[in-house]
Write a structure and sequence with these properties.
By secondary structure, this protein is of the alpha/beta class. Strand 5, helix 7 and strand 6 form a beta-alpha-beta unit. The chain folds into two domains: 94 residues, no CATH class; 166 residues, Toll/interleukin-1 receptor homology (TIR) domain (Rossmann fold, 3-Layer(aba) Sandwich), CATH 3.40.50.10140. It has nine helices and seven strands; from the N terminus they run H-E-H-H-E-H-E-H-E-H-E-H-E-E-H-H. The longest helix is centred in the N-terminal third of the chain and has 23 residues.
Length: 270
């Protein structure tokens, strides 16, 4: 991940902590340690990357709003203002790095778990990080042990969080007959359309493309999971989107062909 995204995510984390503190204890003054940490981090970031002189007028406007309202003042910050700070920093990140992503959400039917397991192994082969013990997960997948929802959590609430999180999320829709029999999957598809998310549709071998329904545009390019050339393109796209170093070509072809053979074998047994 780009260092700038890491820095902005740290600032966003401080903003969230600030909101939590205000919700629990009430308004904070400018001398509050979290508020001062936020000001120091955002000031250093904007100076380091010369945001004030950015070529985008919108980005400069966001910078001016941050500067005019939240720097170098003795101030009491209430909940509404803290939420505005968070939105400003999030907007700054979205405007600065619209093509970079931090998470992958796999929309699928749990009945198709074996296929998804194989696909996640392919994503790991491309270079998507495996989950860490501290809970950081790049892939969200409700059926995979390394990426699913923790015990005791509400499934709908956790899925909703992924759609409203402050990170840039790339959505992958895994189409099978089972997918379109699920109202939950169709709801996820609808949310992707309504919220204008970046997504890729992947069809399993043998799935009838004419069964694709829902709100997503029908002219968008999809591909079958066993299409080696399209998988090559997906690999390149993910490397760019997540700032990954390309893996050795031979290693990639072994991982890709293993995945394709696995998917075709599963499809033949349906």
């Amino acid at each position: 991940m780009e260092i700038q995204l890491i820095e902005l995510n740290e600032i966003i984390g401080v903003c969230k902590d600030l909101i939590g503190r205000i919700e629990k204890h009430g308004d904070v003054k400018s001398g509050d340690d979290l508020y001062e940490k936020y000001k120091l981090l955002i000031n250093n970031f904007c100076q380091k990357y010369d945001i004030e002189n950015h070529q985008s007028k919108i980005i400069v406007s966001i910078y001016n709003t941050i500067k005019d309202y939240y720097w170098n003042r003795n101030y009491t910050v209430n909940l509404k203002e803290a939420e505005a700070i968070l939105e400003l920093v999030t907007s700054l990140k979205s405007m600065l790095y619209p093509g970079l992503f931090e998470k992958i959400f796999i929309s699928h039917r749990e009945k198709d778990k074996p296929q998804i397991d194989a696909f996640i192994d392919l994503l790991y082969a491309i270079g998507i990080p495996r989950p860490l013990q501290n809970g950081n997960k790049t892939i969200f997948c409700s059926s995979h042990p390394a990426a699913y929802i923790e015990n005791g959590r509400m499934i709908d609430e956790e899925i909703l969080k992924q759609f409203h999180c402050k990170q840039n999320v790339f959505f992958i829709l895994w189409y099978t007959d089972n997918y379109f029999d699920s109202q939950a999957c169709l709801n996820e598809m609808g949310a992707i359309w309504v919220m204008n998310k970046t997504y890729q549709e992947i069809l399993t071998p043998g799935f009838d493309r004419n069964k694709i329904g829902g709100l997503l545009p029908q002219m968008k390019v999809d591909f079958r999971a066993n299409d080696k050339f399209r998988l090559n393109t997906l690999k390149s796209q993910i490397e760019h989107m997540f700032c990954l170093n390309p893996i050795d070509q031979n290693a990639w072809e072994i991982a890709r062909d293993t995945f394709v053979n696995t998917i075709e074998e599963m499809a033949s047994k349906r």
